[in-house]
Amino acid sequence: MSGFRLARGGLIDRSRPLSFRFDGRSLSGFAGDTLASALIANGVSTVGRSFKLHRPRGILGAGAEEPNALVELRSGDRREPNVKATVAELYDGLDASSQNRWPSLRFDLLAVNGLLKPVFAAGFYYKTFMWPAAFWEKVYEPLIRRAAGLGRASGLPDPDRYERVFAACDLLVVGGGPAGLMATLTAGRAGADVILVDEDHRPGGRLLADGVSAGGMDGPALAAQLVGEIRSLPNVRVLSRTTAAAAFDHGTFIAVERVADHLPLPQPEMPRQRVWEIVAERTVLATGASERPLVFADNDRPGVMLAGGVSQYVNRHAVSPGRRVVVATATDAGWATARDLVRAGVNVAAVVDARGSAPRGFEDVAAEVAVFPAARVDRTLGRGKVEAVAIAQAGGTVEVPADLVAVSGGFNPAIQLISHFGVRPTWEPAIGGFVIGGPVHGIHPAGAAAGRYDLAACLADGARAAVAALSEIGRTAAMPDLPSIEPGPHAAGTAFWKPGTLRPGRAFVDLQHDVTAADVDLAHREGYVSVEHLKRYTTLGMATDQGRTSNVDGLAIMAALRGLPIADAGVTLSRPPVVPLSIGAVAGARTGHHFRPTRLTPIHAWAEEQGAVFVDTGQWKRPQYFPRPGETSWLDTVNREVMAVRSGVGVTDVSTLGKIEIHGPDAAAFLDRVYANRPSRIPVGRSRYALMLREDGFVMDDGTVARFAEDRFAASVSTAHAAAVWRHMLFCQQVLWPDLDVSLAAVTDVWAQFAIAGPKSARVVAALVDDGDPVSRESFGPMTARELTVCGGISARLAAVSFSGERAFELAVPASAGDAVVRRIMRAGDEHGIVAYGTEAMAVMRIEKGHPAGAELNGQTTAHDLGFAKMLARDKDHVGRVLSQRPALNDPARPRLVGLKPVDPSTPLKGGAHVLPAGAAATADNDQGWVTSSAYSPTLASHIALALVTRGPERHGEVVQVWDGIRGSVVQATIAAPCHLDPEGERLHAG
Amino acid sequence: MRITCPHCGPRDLIEFTVLGEARTRPAVAVEDLDSPAAVDAFAAYVYDRANPAGIHREHWFHGFGCQTWLVVTRDTLNHAVLAVADVREERP
After folding, report:
1. Of A97, A261, A817, A880, which sits 20 to 30 A from A223 (CA to CA)?
2. Contact A179, A447 (CB under 8 A)
3. In angstroms, what separates the C-alpha of A187 from chain B's closest C-alpha?
4. What is the pLDDT of residue A483?
């Protein structure tokens, strides 16, 4: 192939030359070129090496179906592999490199793989490299990884921005060719809300590529006229450079818009790509068709090109991919290409038609070129690129010198998007392709995507599809007047490779995955006759092009080998996405700290001022500990915070606790059904620990319930379970017991909430509340809960509940007052040495007290396991009531909650370590449970832990092994009650 | 996938949470809660979920919307949503 720029014509701007580099060579093209057309203009024929065999490859087509011309674009952190040169718009300074070659495109040492073709035959990865086993990791795998792969990722953080946007419309039109434009115009004129997505930067599709004329206009002029009216309609949005990549249920589509890929760099604030999620009432699928190559020996030699691609290069880009062309065709499309070439002054050496004589309507072409009817291309010849073509016909084989073979083996309608619904297309012999019979899931195929290849038929079909689609949603659209077009025959046949004609050389079916006709034959002989097996065994059609140019040829060969018609041999489906999507586009803006929302408590700013170190708890940022100068480790800080609370007073932020209000005449009855104990017995002005089960009898959550009036309660649920408990309570209210008169409100974010804990906590709280001293031991004892005001009229809820085991209060104030109140708390506590403490100190104190938390409430524990069996009320129905009593859930041999104390108090116990009987080997049979939570207790000057141990409560005092196989330690520890500190609860009553 | 919420209109799947087959919790008298029949009834309620290829009535929660539990009747073979109702309006 020796391409060159034509002297005139084309949709390029010859006044705007662009310079670019390919493999380091400086080249030039024009605005309107693709990288592929510019390479052709510069006479570049070989653009890459193939995936497995490293054979030199040229450009096969001119569009998104391209299997060969994959390049790396840009450099550094913007290097992108596997860009199709055929759809990459040329820009000034573009820098591209070929792939799969080392050290250079011309001298590729791995081309030796070509000599090893038998090794890479169908199923090679199932058969080869199996022996010796030790060689796999050290020799074979590194070699294969070096040799295989398509391009290289940059390996660097992506510097660009991406967006995701949402849109809805009455009609989505996919594809801006003649059918798509006519569908858009028809629906647009009817006033429908229309979105047209087109992957090109310039709408028109084949109107820009084929040498057609309509109503006295050429293709580009007709496209311009249609687009001009479309753009004048305010109810139509046109998204160019946008590919519909996936279709989902109920009219949902994902499309990717390449906003800045045609620019050297995105402009400031411009996303590189934008992902559209489009919900359409109806869709017209006007995605066109891919041309099929012909399978013959050495059909992968640079210089073999799809006829439709040749036409596009000649007509649109004003380049000829060759100087002496053989057209090999089974369709009238090949003849149209021959005519395009002749008109452009390019020498057409021969037209080889698999069918009989020259078709009607192309007599002018037949008069000017040598015609080989009922003939086929036998093979190509040449060094590195096509230099001659061997043509076989009844009389024998002749060799014709040529540098370009334009092939047309028929067309495959581009119906991948419908394939995403699992809808299998049917073989239509009249057009020699697979089609979808009619509208499916609201998607109407039109034009070439429906197997209509003639321009007049495409225009009419697009309009018809739009009218039909809109009528389904109750909208009326009128058929437009169609341009008068000289009827052009566009007969399409097939010319599939025939088994038994195998010759020296390789006849490729899948160019991107290097699958040959011989591989299909081998798969057949080995019994892989189902098209699904054929696909997986040979990897046919599994490359990034999804087999656009290869699938049907492969299926046809298998059908012939099996002696079946194609219609009976089956067809494979494709999965989303239709085109490769960059990970950045899928992620959109959701990177770094935008990956998910961050929730800050109302006193976050105050905690930051205090120097808090924060920890992520779900979406929340919670203060973990508050280091002070001189403290050398987090443990120093936590020990100080614990000791300060146990000896004086501390404050911590518990705003993240889930808060649910339950209000109504049946509120108490409702809570009795939601919780396993009896919230209805809580007196007004009190709160109580409450346990919630799932219906299967396992523990769902625990917390407290406070009663502020006969008909009004507030439930406090754990931070991690807040959303699930809320959903569950609504389920109980709406689904299980809709007859109860009760209202629920989720108020987690309404309140800022603090725990004020320690023997001096009552003095601090007393200084805050407005009416004197209502927080004495007598007036506000443990589990008291009241609504009152603090700090001069701020409404508040105060409850004497303790998680630390100390005399403690939880104070809730409106979120907007949180910041001011926490500062008042610190001032009021100053004289008592108040400290701020974080989640770590809180965890240490709850482990000291043996309170279960997240690691114990893990969805696999029962009330019996946790020592709460006595809390279960059995004289009423509640969620989990019946199944919680199953014997297996109350088996003493289940792992049950205990405390663990190391025999040597200075030895840490690690969470996740396993409990084994003393002296027992570390085997699964001897496993008796695991450490759920562990901490260093500064109060006890010992490491401590909570654990779930089989028959645990019966084994207090027993010394066991705590075995940590991952971190390699075995610690002797004594089983004890979960509560390590103040088991009588005397500290609760201090102050 | 889209579900037409009776309160909010057509909404995307991401706004909803599915629970599974819409079933009716057994009603058992308090004195019979520990009977084998009660255990059998609740075990069936919790564990024996239908998984039909075809029409399925399911509980869905519109959590990023009106906070309503819905009964969604849909065809598991083709994902068609046949009916959507507020669970309090739709009593089996």
Report:
1. A261
2. yes
3. 23
4. 87
pLDDT tens per residue across span A260-274: 999 999 999 899 999
Q: Which residues of A579-607 are buried (b: 16+ CB within 10 A; e: fewer)?
A: bebbebbbebeeeeeeeeeebebbbbebb
ipTM: 0.98
pLDDT above 90 (res A134): no
Name which of B2, B12, B69 is nearest A730 (Cβ-Cβ): B69
Optimal mutation site among A169, A700, A734, A741, interface B, most CBs of chain B within 10 A: A734
Question: Coil, strand or helix: which one is A97?
Answer: strand
Nearest to A881 among B12, B33, B43 (CB): B33
d(C-alpha A981, C-alpha B3), whole Å: 54
Task: Please enumerate in sequence order all residues whose Cβ is within 8 A of that of A662, keeping only pairs 6 or more positions apart, or say none.
Answer: A670, A671, A712, A713, A714, A715, A729, A742, A743, A744
Find chain A residues with C-beta within 8 A of B86's C-beta: 734
| Helix H or strand E segment including A584 | helix A583-587
Q: Do A730 and B67 touch (CB under 8 A)?
A: yes
Yes or no, beta carbons of A882 and B17 under 8 Å apart? no
Chain B neighbors of A248, CB-CB under 8 A: 1
Q: Is the pLDDT of residue A128 over 60?
A: no
User: What residues does each domain of chain A span?
Assistant: 113-147, 162-289+413-472, 497-562, 852-988
What is the average per-residue pLDDT within A708-718? 97
Q: Which residues contact A713 (CB under 8 A, 6 or more apart)?
A: A661, A662, A663, A667, A668, A671, A679, A682, A705, A706, A707
pTM: 0.89
Q: Exposed e or buried b for every residue in A222-249, given b needs 16+ CB within 10 A?
A: bbbbbbeebeebeebbbbbbbbbbbbbe
Q: Does B61 touch chain A (CB under 8 A)?
A: yes
> Domains of chain B (ranges plus CATH)?
2-24+52-86 (3.30.2270.10)
**Tell me, what's the pLDDT at A822?**
98
Average pLDDT score, chain A: 92
Closest CB from B28, B43, B69 relative to A731:
B69
Compute the distance between CA of residue A433 and CA of residue A965 in angstroms, rounded to an integer: 61
The DSSP H or E segment spanning A717 is strand A712-717
Q: Which of B17, B33, B69 sits opposite A735 (nearest CB)?
A: B69
A279 Cβ under 8 Å from any chain B Cβ: yes
CB-CB neighbors (< 8 A) of A881 in chain B: 33
Query: Could you say which architecture CATH assigns to the domain A852-988?
Result: 2-Layer Sandwich (3.30)
Taking only the tens place, the pLDDT of each residue in A334-377 is 999 999 999 999 999 999 999 887 888 899 999 999 999 999 99
Could you tell me the CATH superfamily of domain A162-289+413-472? Answer: FAD/NAD(P)-binding domain (3.50.50.60)
**Strand runs (DSSP E) across A847-922, as ranges?**
895-902, 914-917
Does A727 sit within 8 Å of B17, measured CB to CB?
yes
- Judged against a pLDDT cut of 70, whether residue B43 lies above it is answered with yes
Q: Give the ranges where A798-930 is alpha helix by DSSP (H).
A: 818-829, 839-849, 863-866
The answer to whether the CB atoms of A250 and B79 lie below 8 A apart is yes
**Fold of domain A497-562:** Arc Repressor Mutant, subunit A (1.10.10)
CB contact under 8 A, B30 and A738: no
